[in-house]
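Justification of computing resources. Each target in the renewal requires a structure prediction run like the one illustrated here; the chain below, 289 residues long, is used simply to show the kind of job we budget for.
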Amino acid sequence: MILMGINFEVFLSLVIYPLSFVLWAPETGGLTPPLPQQINLVNQPDFSLVTNDKGQMTSDKGQIAIRQFTVRLLGEQTAGSGVIVARYGHTYTVLTCAHVIAWHEGGGLQVVTHDGNTHIATRNPNFDLGNLDLAVVEFTSSEDYPTARINANNQNLALQQPVYVSGFPNSPPGGSKLEPGLASLMASYFLSSGDLLLVLDRPLERGYQIGLSNDVYIGMSGGPVLNSQGDLIAIIGRTKYAFGGVSAYRFADGTEPDPELLSQMESASWAIPIFCHLSFVTCPLTNDQ
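Resulting structure tokens:
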């Protein structure tokens, strides 16, 4: 089933509210009838992420689950990451950053899953994500892959809470170069532990709004950000100390941060919270300290 003209809020409703399976229809001011078997979320691993006093993850089950729903996106000019968020029949939906696949509007995109299988992928243009640095990619497979869990009842982003980011650096954290070949590209998988440092009262350009202490490397853009309950809360897209100085941290409303805030922002990696459709409005995130 192809759904034309679905916007990001509808996409989130399909993923976050799988029990209701309803679409919001602005033109009628109400709900459309449920779409039977629209999204299948049966393979969602149930896990929490346990860490020791050094912030190191000790849950093997959690690490395995994250690895299985984190995917590599590859193309002639692309090497990034993504996360499987939904399934319909044999069609899987992957959420990633728009800048990861910006050069692949005409095709040539591949998704590589945790088992090393390569799948032809296409961008779904029917999701209107506005200016957000997010994109929806689809691939088909008869294999059973898990999907990340999105909990609509767990939207609180308390500062200093542990968060985890996974993805595929294009260069190993040590600074050496990857060997040519798919095996090397997949072996670079990296799971980063850290804390939530900043929750802005309004988004930066392209929807970035939460800052993390996690070390993130080029190639991890599009990967998942998870809380300690294992819930997907954001998509990573920017490393620390971005090029461009203050202009790299301009708010979506065109204003710039003061020097003190800028200093804090530069030392954080940045992600887009998935609970909000951000369009020059304040994202309704809680920020309990």
